[in-house]
Amino acid sequence: MDVVLEHVGKQFGRVTAVEDVSLTVGEGELVALLGPSGCGKSTTLFLVAGLYRPTSGRILFGGRVANDATPQERGVGMVFQSYALYPHLTVFENIAFPLRVRRTRGTEIAERVRRVADLVGIAELLPRRPGQLSGGQQQRVALCRALVKEPAVLLLDEPLSNLDARLREATRAEIRRLQRELGITTLFVSHDQAEALSVADRVGVMHGGRLIAVMTPADLYEHPPSRFIAEFIGTPPMNFLEARVEDGRLAVTGVAPRPLAHPIPPGTYVLGVRPEHLELAADGDLRAEVFLVEQMGREWLVHAACGDASLRLLTGAGAAVTVGSRVSLRLVWRRAHLFESQSGAAVPFGLADAPR
Amino acid sequence: MTPDAVGPHGRWGVAAALMVLTAPIIVLYGWLLLASFSVTITGLVPHGLTLANWRFLWQTLPNEANAWVAAGNSLTFAVTVAVLEVLVGAMAAYALSRLTFPGRGLFLGSTIVLHSFPSVTLLIAIFLILRALGLYDRLAGVILVKLALDLPLGIWIMKGFFDAVPWDVEMAALVDGYSRIRVWWKVMLPLIRPGLFAFAIFAFLSGWNEFLLPYVLLPSQDSQTLSVLMASLSGEERFADYGLVTALSVFYILPAVAVFALTQRYLLRIFSGGVKG
Fold first, then answer.
1. Which residues of chain A are within 8 Å of residue B185 when distances are taken between CB atoms?
2. The pTM is what?
3. Does the CB of A82 have a partner CB in chain B at under 8 Å?
4. How many domains does chain A fold into?
5. How far apart are CA A330 and CA A279, in angstroms?
């Protein structure tokens, strides 16, 4: 089933939590809602779940308006950040809980609980109580409870944020595998950009209650439509340098002005360069002084000061950099991004001597 | 501080100090028990062994209510108060904890203010209202009054229990297809059961010990409670039978002590939020 949000808004009293959100989650698609805390992504999820009622706009499930439908009528399964298991019930009863309300026959309940527990790999935990389980196990029980109803739509609210790093990676792959296998339409809320990019077909970025972009993970990384998104997506984060456009030339702080291939309105801009697009070179564009080297195994993260700006660049392990040394850096201009300094909107640009 | 931190000698010291502090109470109750089986008491020393003081168990005392009837009234009163207080209180507390409705803040504030009035000041009004309702001198009437006076604090305490239950658990049950009332019954109540149980015991004991309301509002002998019978016996100045009064005291205390002894490990939960992990 596909889920469509049309200009959906939600106000709590005088506070606007979500404003004019339009989004389509296609049949069997996994869309991640990404944004910093307080951006309205969980509220949006709760609106889709039917736990909140929108104050404006429409929510459609399979083409039918579902604004006033209860969570049960919508056929959603949901996993909460805290897992929200029922501590007084066994794992079996936790998973069976959504079936009990529907007066499903006892034998069928047992069979369906067993099947979904096998699918997620927790069959041996069924007689235990949530208090006796690890975080990862609780998370799987919560997933089982959401899946046992065979929901048309699966909603995941920060399902991995309470797990430790290694388990998180394993579990997100597991969720992706299950979602593909069951072909279930899924909305996934996360504040972790790496998680959202790795798991989703498309990522919706939210900021201040608005959905500011919906793109594939690759597009989001390669062509961020605004400085906010460029800053938010990618680890380590993008470098930003002040820039001016004058007389058809782009002047970046600390770099000799370069002629533009196409005219851009003169004014102040910000140049964004990802750490992997700054390279050590004998005759680079910038000169900087190294003040910190983080050895991260496969590669090193080098922090260098260039005037007032602090730059991050990735080098291969064993590069010839030491703290205090002066280095020359070359910009990979073709992979750099230009943003208006006021609005933060991305501005396409090309250099006359370095075509994109 | 863990017990080990004090050291073995320190622990005995603490125990000894506590024993000295609690000794007067132990001595008082011990004396009460001894006296109830004694012929006479001079000062604190009882003399002779007798069961005559306990004669209220097999005969009705002249001009007094039957002790068993009074005990039955006390029991009915205390149990009904406890059950209704938990039932009504848990509903009201849930609503105040979880739902938004007009006047919620006012309600929360006024319950505490009402509770701070001494109930004696309301007696005349209560008397007139009960008489108008035809509930004067009836157990149901006193139960109603006791509920009205004790519920505000009970609602506040139980609201605390509900407040401690995370929202997510309730939302999960709503997503699982349960209605609000079934969420309350199937998820919320089981989660705060230890707290509710502790609260029910306190409500029972408070009902069992209640004196003022039955004394004023249940004048006839058939509807008297044990506390009123006690007062009636010890209040007869001319020929107060202290042996009889002590025996009835023990009879009156026993159920309360038994309830405490059986349930004391649950009672602490009322202070720890009432939610089990």
1. none
2. 0.81
3. yes
4. 2
5. 5
